[in-house]
Amino acid sequence: MGILDSIFGNNNNNAAGKFLQTLTENDFTTTDHQTVSSTTDWTTIATYQCPAQQRIAVGWGDINHPDSAGRIYAYIRTGEGTPAEITGKLRILVTNYNDTKRYVLFEGDESHLHGDVNDITKKEVLVEKRPLIGEDSYIKVQIKPVAAHETSGAGNDNVGWADTTESLLRVPITVYQ
User: Fold this and answer.
1) What is the pLDDT of residue 6?
2) What is the tens place of the pLDDT at every residue in 12-31?
3) In this structure, is residue 12 part of a structural domain?
4) Cα 128 from Cα 110, distance rounded (Å)
């Protein structure tokens, strides 16, 4: 690696201006007690907007080094007094500002994405995915539940985001500046 590469970076994994981050439920825009009434359509339950002057890739690392790759963790639960798991398919996609272009980067069974939040073996590998997104583009988390959750009012069976006894989300990203 030359001195200019070390200063300005190049296109490898050690490029300058690239760092790894894990988004949590607090980084996403969510709606507490959100209705997920369709078992046939995808419902967006969390959205993250790419900040100005950044480029973001979902995930980090590569498939040849899974021990150092990013890991996704998702435990989607209701907002009831005793939260219950909302089972079904979960997917992560990126979209442009107008939501006219969509790229699904991950899709899996929600029940396989959680266990002990501190146990790496309970998380699914999520290596760096393209396309990179930029300012005004979004990372979205969607769910297609096995059963509808559409009770109105507080303490209902809809998606709960109020505290750590409810839904948890960890999505690894690579940030380029």
Assistant:
1) 43
2) 444 557 899 999 999 999 98
3) no
4) 20
Q: What is the mean pLDDT of residues 156-165?
A: 84
Q: List the domain range (segments joined by +) for residue 167.
A: 22-176
Q: How many CA atoms lie within 13 A of 152 on its CB side?
A: 0
Q: What is d(CA 136, CA 10) in angstroms, rounded to the nearest whole number? A: 25
In a domain? residue 163: yes
What is this structure's pTM?
Answer: 0.85
Q: Per-residue pLDDT for 150 more than 80? A: no
User: How far is residue 136's CA from residue 75's CA, in Å, rounded to a whole number?
Assistant: 27
Full DSSP string of 139-177: EEEEEEESS-B---STT-SSB--SSTTS-EEEEEEEEE-
Nearest to 88 by CA among 170, 159, 29, 138: 159
Query: Would you say residue 71 lies in a domain?
Result: yes
